[in-house]
Amino acid sequence: MGDRSPKSAQKQASQKQSKNDGINQQKNALVRSQQATKAKAAAGKKR
């Protein structure tokens, strides 16, 4: 049986949130790098 204490539940919730934050940071970094690449390509085409 798992531990159902409030402290345990809070710890699990914070670990889940931390994991989600890490995934979201990776997604945002990927989006920013793609946007930067597109901006560089557009700037190159203007010249």
Give an overview in words.
- The chain is an all-alpha fold and 47 residues long.
- The longest helix has 41 residues, at 6-46.
- The chain has 1 helix and no strands.
- 87% of the residues lie in helices and 0% in strands.
Topology:
Elements: H1 6-46
Distance between the termini: 66 Å
Helical percentage: over 70%
Instruction: Give the low-confidence spans.
Output: none
Using only C-alpha atoms, the radius of gyration works out to 20 Å
Coarse morphology:
rod-shaped
How would a crystallographer describe the biggest sheet? none
Strand-pairing-aware structural class: mainly alpha
Provide tags for this entry.
rod-shaped; mainly alpha; 1 helix; 47 residues
At a glance:
The chain is an all-alpha fold. It contains 1 helix and no strands.
